[in-house]
């Protein structure tokens, strides 16, 4: 199997003109980013800047509620509020070492944009963030944050004006200025080597979780993470892929239900295709046109998925399920009431799966849920949802 593939998924489906940039990136990744010097600096930033390691917290009241031992990996406690900072720091540091002057990024919820703008400020790099106009409106506070951090926010008015269009525009901008610009991709997606590199920079979540479980003399029976492009999930899965006794579960956005057209449940409803430089499973119509997606959470609102997840799905190493907007909001409320932790609506999809899984399990199981981010950014969405105005 070619090295750029995970099973039959992955590859590099990009215009010829961008090939040399991917080669340059591949070389830099395997030389610079694998060097001891880079790793020391990266680890230092993760620790003293981002605030790692994040705790593996025993959620006692959720455990009582569900009758199993529930542990929360607290990525919500990272600087800027989610796991995305791990990857943004890794890629921005690599860009700097490669001598690039500017980094660009796409963003949906604004979380990756904020993380990238933060890393750019820290490392003294120029930064342009591409954002769909609808998302920019939905996430006005994040737009303001990025500007305050010194980034330029480029609003995209094509199509549905959300993440897919922003990504296409960012790829275009990258191709236009390919020698000077480093494209910081926000999830484990895109052409090789991005999915591999993003997994690497997010694998700290899995490594810490593994060590923390060992320290508590525990063995995880289940690990659950939400899946948009799949970076927080592959980050926590990475340390457990070889241990078949650990069940890995990815949770997709079921929106208004996977039987309606309003969802972003890629693995549940999609089939193989090409999107954003990779072969992966994609939500598409019978002519192969990419379908519009819906989720209450901007971070999961993506019609594709990282190629390694497509492979884990078809090879059945991991299982993927969809959670609706309603189920997600109920889980957000429950976690907040029982634990005093307001999870991001993305992460609430993973928490909501407990409701389905726990009643089917016998004995007492140890279940780790990756709380990919905090919910502060989502309070407007939750308020509007309660008023019933979110679907316009
Ligand atoms: C962006 C985001 C996600 C989805 O991205 P993945 O690459 O699938 O992890 C999940 N949770 C939060 C909090 C996010 O900001």
Describe the structure.
The chain has two domains: 17-47 and 84-194, 3-Layer(aba) Sandwich (Rossmann fold); 52-81 and 203-384, Rossmann fold, CATH 3.40.50.1100. Helix content is 44%, strand content 18%. It has 392 residues and is of the alpha/beta class. The structure holds pyridoxal-5'-phosphate. The site of pyridoxal-5'-phosphate (PLP) has 20 residues, from helix 10 and helix 14.
Shape: globular
Number of helices: 15
Strand order of the largest sheet: 3-4-14-9-10-13
What number of structural domains do the residues give? 2
Contiguous uncertain segments of 5+ residues: none
The share of residues in extended strands comes to 15-25%
Average residue-wise pLDDT? 95
Secondary-structure element string:
EEHHEHEHEHEHHEHEHEHEHEEHEHHEH
Number of strands: 14
CATH level 1 class label of the largest domain: Alpha Beta
Which architecture of the largest domain per CATH?
3-Layer(aba) Sandwich
Computed structural class: alpha/beta
CATH topology of the largest domain: Rossmann fold
What compounds sit in this structure? pyridoxal-5'-phosphate
Function: The beta subunit is responsible for the synthesis of L-tryptophan from indole and L-serine.
Family: Belongs to the TrpB family.
Domain Tryptophan synthase beta chain-like PALP: 50-373
Cofactor: pyridoxal 5'-phosphate
């Amino acid at each position: 199997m070619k090295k750029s593939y995970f099973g039959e998924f992955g590859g590099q489906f990009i215009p010829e003109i961008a090939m040399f940039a991917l080669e340059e990136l591949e070389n830099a990744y395997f030389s610079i980013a694998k060097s001891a010097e880079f790793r020391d600096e990266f680890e230092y930033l993760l620790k003293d800047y981002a605030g790692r390691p994040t705790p593996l917290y025993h959620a006692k009241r959720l455990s009582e509620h569900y009758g199993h031992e529930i542990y929360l990996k607290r990525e919500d406690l990272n600087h800027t509020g989610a796991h995305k900072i791990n990857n943004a720091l890794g890629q921005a540091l690599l860009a700097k070492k490669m001598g690039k002057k500017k980094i660009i990024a796409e963003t949906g919820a604004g979380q990756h944009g904020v993380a990238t703008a933060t890393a750019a400020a820290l490392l003294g790099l120029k930064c342009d963030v591409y954002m769909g106009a609808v998302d920019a409106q939905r996430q006005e506070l994040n737009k303001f944050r990025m500007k305050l951090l010194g980034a330029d926010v480029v609003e995209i008015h094509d199509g549905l004006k959300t993440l897919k269009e922003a990504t296409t525009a960012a790829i275009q901008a990258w191709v236009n200025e390919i020698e000077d610009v480093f494209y910081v991709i926000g999830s484990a997606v895109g052409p090789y080597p991005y999915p591999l590199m993003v997994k690497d920079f997010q694998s700290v979540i899995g490594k810490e979780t593994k060590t923390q479980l060992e320290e508590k003399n525990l063995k995880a029976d289940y690990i659950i993470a939400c899946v948009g492009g799949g970076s927080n999930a592959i980050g926590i899965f990475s340390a457990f892929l070889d241990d078949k006794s650990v069940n890995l579960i990815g949770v997709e956005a079921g929106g208004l239900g996977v039987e309606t057209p309003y969802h972003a449940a890629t693995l549940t409803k999609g089939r193989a295709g090409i999107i954003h430089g990779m072969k992966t499973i994609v939500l598409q119509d019978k002519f192969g046109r990419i379908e519009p997606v819906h989720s209450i959470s901007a971070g999961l609102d993506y019609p594709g998925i990282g190629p390694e997840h497509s492979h884990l799905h078809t090879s059945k190493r991991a299982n993927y399920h969809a959670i609706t907007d309603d189920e997600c909001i109920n889980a957000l409320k429950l976690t907040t009431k029982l634990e005093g932790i307001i999870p991001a609506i993305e992460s609430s999809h993973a928490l909501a799966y407990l409701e389905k899984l726990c009643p089917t399990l016998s004995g007492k199981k140890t279940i780790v849920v990756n709380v990919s981010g905090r919910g502060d950014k989502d309070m407007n969405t939750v308020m509007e949802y309660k008023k019933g105005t979110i679907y316009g």
